[in-house]
Design goal:
By secondary structure, the chain is of the alpha+beta class. The protein is 34% helix and 25% strand. Helix 19 runs parallel beside helix 20. The longest helix has 23 residues. It is globular, with a radius of gyration of 34 Å. The protein starts with a helix and ends with a helix.
Amino acid sequence: MCRRTNERITGTVRHSYFQLSVYELRFASLVLLLVSSSASARLFPSLKAEDIRRISFVGRCEQNQWSTDKDDKIEIMMSAEPGESCEARLHFREPQELKYLASLQFIVRSTRPKQRMAIELVGNTDGDPEDSLARTRPFSVSDEWTPDALRFQQVKKGWRPKAISEIRFISLSDAGRSAPSLYIKEVRFAGSPKNLSASAANAEAVAEGGASEVAAPVAADIPLDHQLVCVAANDLPSLQAQGPRAIPTSITSEFKRLFQMIKAKAMNITSFQRGIAGACLAWLSATWWYIRRKKPSLVTLISPLYEINTRTWKSTRDSNGVHRLGGFNAITSGDLKTIKASGFSSIWLMGIWDIGPKVRAISKRYGQDFLGSPYAIREYRVSEELGSEEEFDALADRAHKAGLKVIVDFVPNHMGLDSDWLNQHPEYFIHRTLSPTETELPDHELEKRNPGYFVHRTPSYPQGHRRVPRTILVAYGKDPYFYPWIDTAQLDYAEPSLRRKMMEVLCELAQKVDGVRCDMAMLVLREQVKIHRHAEMSWEAFNRMMPEEFWPEAIHATKRIKPTFTFMAETYWAMEGYLQQLGFDYTYNKPLYEAICSAFQSANAEGLLNFMRLLGNDFLSRGVHFIENHDEERVMNTLGEERQRAAAAVLCTLPGVALLHQGQLEGKRERLPVQRAVPIHQEPVNVNLRQFYERLLKTTSLPLFREGRLNVLYSNNPSFISYTRFDETAKAIVIINTSAHHQKGSVTIVPGLPLKAGSAYELHDLFYDLKSPETKRQSTVAPTYHYPAAHLITQGLYVELAPYDAHIFIVEPHPDFKLTERLVHALRTLHEGLPLPRVARRVLDTTIMHSEDHQED
């Protein structure tokens, strides 16, 4: 395919321009890359606040604001009222001389696709200033960050500007429909003194023709770094310079420009250069074909997942109560290799972010050895107690070399109450300003009158285009159905700049790790934000502030940087399915955790099996299943050791992500609050339990248990958990006794598991080696069983299981029937391949059909 494409392109060039060999086109391709690089270098830096005298908003604007990032580059947000227009006017401090300008370039997006906008330029001319206006026709804006260049389609006759004094960005709204927000950034001019004549010629053409277009560089002329789709926040430098280079959106346009350059430069290319040019074009075509066909999976398999409480890893406390945290360097290559050898695919490094002194002080009220909650984050930088950014990067590299993916926490709902953001951007938080009568009240009185809020004095409260000191009341972060978390501050997702900021954080994380576990992800859904954070606001006004859900946009933007980046949601309130629809790869399955615990505590599995039937295979395959984590009680306390082994067999044979917690494998009983870094009790390691977990994880590491489908089976014994896992190449039957007593019963195999009538099957028990010696001594237990298919189809599978025992059967055709199937397959292949006479073919057909009928019988 690649060769034919190259030949077709090469033939087109030969016929249209002049005789070029394959080698000639390669040189031209190389020249194209050099020309593109030089064109990128001619881009002027983005406009900064120092270049602008003022920014004014004119027209009927529903909302408008502008700000600058740390690099002092300008970012604009605006939307128009229904049927109206809103203008953002940038007035230059000094007019931009036309001789240095080839075009205006910028990056733009809308919160809704197909939003319309237009652009005007105001120029200083020798004539009437009123005639110094050029305006584009309205054009559509995508809902993704898109590079664009100003292309004139109609200007007033006689427009001969010497310099540009003002740019006007115009947002247009349809009548009867609220306009989405329009975001503009990276505003710059392109050109250089070298193309002065071209710029002047363009200006003359526009002035005389009236409808001509200025020759503006296409989007591909913008540096590839600036085509990266990622939202930039107001208070951080753009991620685009650090992100991976994006692939040009249209290779076709590159080929067209290549051909035009060959036509223009044909007389100056030597025969040797023509040979090199052809080779370059062939290489470019092959590369394009490979990139287009290579489609990475958007969902990464991360099961089993090991949760590491990073602050507790090898941390100690001396006799004086002084803590010494192990930190990132304590998680050595040997530790990671051991985790990988135990059967894990990924690690979740819980509690790595920076915590402020106020958060630590609050935690001391509840325990002198508390070090603050790692979910009350001051800033998304790693805690200095654990190590530096470089040491964390080294840890991530060690994990990747060991074959482990790395998941970290993302906390969307709140920040620590001493977060740096409160001083930089207090508008990110749910807050209210003080009334005149409240300004004289002391802090404790203000907090008494406003429960759920704390007093904060910020030096940077937005007031018009300035930021001024102000005292405000900030809401504590909270779950709406529980008391506030008094060490946190509630974020406001109705604020567009906050949403952009959080996307910026995710984009940064995508360049370091493989995924995020999103804490309480359902709290930032639009319905929750409206009802619990902005109850006093009308839905019409709220829809203008937060027109779309946050998660789809954030997930899409992040996966444009790393398509395999994993989003895992901690969620409750039956929101799992909705969050999966919004783009989450995996969601917590707390109801399944409760159903598993209930089944083993009551010795009745019917509720669990009905729940699994209700959820279905597709939902389960995107669930995060656990019998313990840092928020739940230790499984040694809820189920004990025997029941835990059986529950772990369920956990590791379900589709989806099996999550195991640090200390679970060793049989730990002390549940640590997230604020505590060192356990109070030194518990011995349960060696037998750890060996059981390691063997179970290795046993269930087959692709069948990671990606196969699940069907729940029926049994005449309510104590049995029974289901099948199967894919195109393998089949398994899982049967687990939830009772403390010896149980007998039959399990109906068909139609839950497809079997071929007339065959015989061998059932090999993977769980046999994990059974206790007492169980193995029972006469009914064996590592392998043989059954005719007719018996399994008509009578099912008879099972006797000891207390909390299990079978994990791999179902395979009996070896003798495997040989028969291979012979029939060989006969059919011979039949189809040989040029036999009609009579001989009929005889062979009859023989094959008889063989297959015999197998079916």
